[in-house]
Amino acid sequence: MVKFTVENLKFKYKNSEKIIFDNISIDINQGEFLCILGKSGCGKSTFLKLLSGLEMPTCGSIYYEEKEIKKASLDRAVVFQDYGLFPWMTAGDNILLALRQKYKKEKKQNLKNLAIEMIKKVGLDESVYKLLPKELSGGMKQRCAIAQSLAVDPPVLLMDEPFGALDAVTRVKLQDLVLDLLSKNTEKKTLIFVTHDVDEALFLADRIIVLGQVPSSIIFDENISNIKGNEKLDRKKVFENTNILKLRNDLISIINNDINKKI
Ligand SMILES: Nc1ncnc2c1ncn2[C@@H]1O[C@H](COP(=O)(O)OP(=O)(O)O)[C@@H](O)[C@H]1O
Ligand SMILES: [Mg+2]
Asked: Whose CA is nearest to atom 3 of ligand 1?
């Protein structure tokens, strides 16, 4: 089933003359783990904002489950680049706030229990509930942001370079965590994940697209789940796969050639 349909999307921000997207058309399927690659400034975050409904197309249309997107929805949770936690609220209250949007009439204690359950699910101690974001490491904040978005259990997760600010070890742990949490879910979530890290995309994705330089369009689009086969969850095997290594080189040169072309 098609989850999103993007049709002849053109976009520029209202306060600027710069055209960000020239003409983008793409279908994104239910249950797909789609990674979006591209250099800084090519419009990756903007594309997520459009899919979430936080920005509207200048021309063209975006449909979610065949209905045109008119505003943001709890069906499409966004995990932002900068964690998206309010600094003046504890980690627990941040999660509670998200839960309250969905469960408007639920007793506070029940939501609190659910928040603590999610905190534990992402591998944190429940004492984190009472801590402010500034008292948490980058990895812990990112786990809280994941807990927050999973707590509302949306069918679609939009993640904007969620691990970009983390050290390599924490990053690998959180990549595994996301795949693990997804595999335990009965209904397959649709994940749209922005990264500038080719290896991260190769490890996580079923499908990879690359955005070119602005005014940007899709310059690469390939389903890679067949190439990965059963080796999907095994990092070592994925990167021993010669087809994946070839694709890795291709992706790096696609991204770089595009830059050379436009400078
Ligand atoms: N709120 C905004 N208003 C005007 N221009 C913006 C805004 N946000 C981003 N841009 C511009 O849009 C382009 C794409 O930005 P962005 O989507 O953040 O790229 P990426 O996430 O790929 O780094 C950049 O040129 C950026 O300067
Ligand atoms: Mg960005």
From this structure: 13
Residues 42, 214: contact at Cβ < 8 Å?
yes
- C-alpha of residue 160 to centroid of ligand 2, in Å: 7
Residues 217 and 230 reside in one and the same domain: yes
Instruction: Identify the CATH number of the domain in which residue 55 sits.
Output: 3.40.50.300
Residue count of the chain: 263
Domain that holds residue 33: 2-75+155-262
* 104 and 221 part of one domain: no
pLDDT at residue 87 greater than cutoff 80: yes
My answer on whether 45 and 10 are in the same domain is yes
| Residue 213, ligand 1, Cβ within 6 A | no
Residues 101 and 228 both lie in one domain: no
Rg (CA), the chain: 19
Beta-ladder partners of 194? 36, 160
Ligand 1 binding pocket mutation candidate from 15, 45, 55, 197 (most atoms within 8 A of CB): 45
CB of residue 43 inside a 6 A radius of ligand 1? yes
Mutate which of 12, 13, 80 for ligand 1? The one with the most ligand atoms within 8 Å of its CB, which is 13
Write out pLDDT tens, residues 188-225.
899 999 998 999 999 999 999 999 999 999 999 999 99
Count: domains in the chain: 2
- The token pair that represents 187 in the structure block: 């209904």
How far apart CA 51 and CA 63 sit, in angstroms, is: 9
> Are residue 132 and residue 116 in the same domain, yes or no?
yes
48 ligand 1 Cβ < 6 A: no
At 37 the pLDDT is 97
